[in-house]
Amino acid sequence: MINGPGTASGNGRTALVVGATGIAGSALVDTLVGEGWEVLALSRRPGPERAGVRWLSADLTSAESLAGVFSPENPSHVFFTAWSRRTTEEENIAVNAGMVRDLLASLRGKDVAHVALMTGLKHYLGPFEAYAAGEMPDTPFHEEEPRLPAANFYYAQEDELWAAAAEQGFTWSVHRAHTVIGHAVGNAMNMGLTLAAQATLCRDSGQPFVFPGSETQWNGLTDMTDAGLLAEHMLWASTTPAAANEAFNIVNGDVFRWRWMWPKLAAYFGVEWEGYQGSRVRLSSQ
After folding, report:
1. What is the pLDDT at residue 11?
2. Per the residue annotation, which of 154, 264, 268, 276 is the catalytic one?
3. Pairing state of beta strands 77-80 and 171-177?
4. Which of 118, 153, 188, 262 has the fewest Cβ atoms nearer than 10 Å?
């Protein structure tokens, strides 16, 4: 039997992954396919053909486009990992909250059981315009920390998710990842591949591997979220009743400082390195 729109095979569940070619989305597709799910993969450009995956394309900023694409589909679970960077936080809120609202509206009347929303560290540190500028909760961050007194598109996305859940009857989970590391081709936010490319170019050109961040980043504690771990966590929360309607601060659990990590990366690639030396040397200028 050939599966048509809205049908599932394997475990009888169909997952819609929004942002399926991104770092988190790519890992989710891999994880879901490995667990026998039928996957609807939504992205601007289709990824590689593979068994169990059907690629869809829609304009996330257009309610009409979303409604047209999802009219014949019936996913049981939704994983939302996409976002769009805009100039101001007001624009970020309008566009990114709108994408969540319109996507979920296009699924109204479907048999959606759960929606998982990926947000991030800015939930705790504030938006781009006021990042780490005000009073912040102590580390490690906890899910129950109150929202910061600043407009934040993550908060607006959560509000849209909760409103749709109350109206449409699905359960939800929010996954506040930190810097996500994983495999995704052509993704400009993928720090792992970006630093690997920088180190490789330095090695081939004989230039030093210069840290491109600030003094605070060089000396401060930081952590990462592995894309595979995040995918496993999102799948677990989406299928475990006890995890329903919860937010999670999801990180690997280990912390480090770049002043320790940078020499390790340099040694791996066989290059000389330079740390922060009084002023920031941006990667774009290098």
Report:
1. 57
2. 154
3. unpaired
4. 188
222's tokens = 């930081």
Q: CATH topology for 14-181+223-250?
A: Rossmann fold (3.40.50)
Strands across the sheet containing 255-257: 179-181, 221-226, 255-257
Residue 122: active-site member: yes
Choose the catalytic residue: 110, 122, 124, 276.
122
**Which amino acid is located at 63 in the chain?**
A
Give Cα 64 to chain centroid, integer Å: 25
80: phi then psi, degrees, rounded to nearest 5: -105, 110
Please provide residue 249's backbone torsions phi and psi, each rounded to the nearest 5 degrees.
-90, 100
Q: Containing H/E element for 137? A: none
Of 64, 63, 26, 31, whose CA–CA distance to 42 is shortest?
Answer: 26
Cβ-contact 8, 74 below 8 angstroms? no
Residue 137 structure tokens: 């909760």
Sequence-ordered list of residues with C-beta below 8 angstroms from that of 259, at least 6 positions apart, any chain: 218, 219, 275, 276
Token pair listed for 132: 């780490």
* Contacts of 46 by beta carbon, 8 Å cutoff, 6+ apart: 55, 57
- pLDDT, one tens digit per residue, over 222-237 is 999 999 999 999 999 9
The pTM of this model reads: 0.90
Q: What is the mean pLDDT of residues 110-137?
A: 88
Which two tokens mark 268? Answer: 């791996």
Give me the residue spans of the domains in the chain. Answer: 14-181+223-250, 191-221+255-274
Task: Give mean pLDDT, residues 84-103.
Answer: 96
